[in-house]
Amino acid sequence: MGSFHPGRIVAGLCLAMMTAGAAHASSGMEQSFLQPMGPVAEEQFSHLLRVVGITMVVILPVLIGVPFILWRYRYAKPKGDYTPEWEFSKALEWALWGVPVVVVLVLASWLWYSTEKLDPYRAQGPDPLQVQVIGLDWKWVFIYPEEGIATVNELAVPVGRPVELTLTTDTVMQSLLISSLTGQIYAMPGMTTKLNFSASRTGVAEGENTQFNGDGFGLQKFTVRALEPADYAAWAAGGSSELTLDEATYAILRRQSALADAREELGLERNAQPVMMTLGRQGIFDQIVAKYHGRGDGKRHADWGGTGLPAEGTGGGEK
Amino acid sequence: MSQDTSPIFGNLNWNVTPYTDLLRDVNSSTIIGAGAASVLVLGAIATLALLTYMRWWGPLYRNWLTSPDAKKIGIMYIVLGLVMLARGVIEGFVIRAQQATALGTLTQEHKVGLVAPDHFAQLFSTHGTIMIFFVAMPLLIGLINFVLPQQLGARDMAFPVLNQVSLGLTAAGAGLVMISLLIGQFGTGGWTMYPPYTGIDFSPGEGVDYWLWAILISGMGSTLTGMNFAVTIFKERAPGMHFMRMPLFCWTSLCVAIMLIYAMPALTVSSGMLMLDRYAGFHFFTNAAGGNMMNYANIFWMFGHPEVYILVLPAFGVFSEISSTYSGKRLYGYTSLVIASMSIAVISFTVWLHHFFTMGQSAGVNIAFGIATMIIGIPTGVKIYDWMATMWRGRVRITAPIVYLTGFFLLFVIGGLSGIILANPSIDYQVHNTTFLVAHFHNVIIPGVLYGMLAGIHYWFPKAFGFRLDETWGRRTAFLFVGGFVFTFLPLYVLGLMGMPRRSPTFQNPDFMPWMYIAAFGAVLMLCALTSLFWTFFTSYRNRMALAVPGGDPWNGSTLEWSTPAPVPEWTFPRIPYVAARDDWGERKRAGDPWKAPQQYCDIEMPANTAHGLLIAGAAFALGFAAIWHIWWLVILSFLAIPGVLALRGMRVIEPKVISAAEVRETDQRFRHLATTLAPITRAEEESERNRGVPDISEFAG
Question: ipTM for the complex?
Answer without folding.
Answer: 0.91
